[in-house]
Amino acid sequence: MKKVLAIMAAALMAAVGFSQEMVKDNTALSVTKSKFGFDTTVQKLKDVLKAKDLPVFAEFDHQKNAREVGLSMQQTKVIVFGNPKVGTQLMLQEPLISLDLPLKISIIENKDETVSIVFTNTDVLIKKYHLKDTTIVAKMQALMENIVASINS
To answer: Does residue 90 contact residue 98 with C-beta atoms inside 8 Å?
Structure first.
């Protein structure tokens, strides 16, 4: 049992170190300043997704959730969306990637009242899940970049 716990602890520390290093190096996340206010940015994201026929599976309003437990924070919403045909192909290659799918974009109101559009760079998925066929993931990265550019146009 101690051996199993030691192995699990080592794996967790390696994963945490990997994640912290990538965020520190600013390669894990794509952060783009929006040209618009928070509500407009969120609406433009939804409009772009609709135009691209990408279904929204969930929307998390972190400010609302914080308020419901007596806390306050800046406006932050995460929009979860994707294409099951694409995501399923990746999960057939590596089922563990299901933890990172569907795709997500976070819209964050910063303390200086600017707005950031944030998503995880798909290179993270390639490294994290040791994906051999990276064609789909490269297309996902291009899609995410296009979505952000469309929001800011």
So the answer is: no
- pLDDT tens sequence across 23-71: 445 689 999 999 999 999 999 999 999 999 999 999 999 999 999 999 9
Q: What CA–CA distance (Å, rounded) separates 39 from 109? A: 10
CA 121 vs. chain centroid, Å, equals 8
DSSP 106: E
The one-letter code for the residue type at 33 is K
Contacts of 118 (CB under 8 A, 6+ apart): 29, 30, 31, 32, 105, 106, 107, 108
**Distance from C-alpha of 20 to C-alpha of 18, rounded to nearest angstrom:** 6
CA dihedral (12, 105, 145, 53) positive or negative: positive
Task: Please tell me the pTM assigned to this model.
Answer: 0.82
How far is C-alpha 74 from the geometric centre of its chain's CA atoms? Answer: 18
Report H helices in the chain.
2-24, 38-51, 62-68, 84-93, 123-129, 135-151
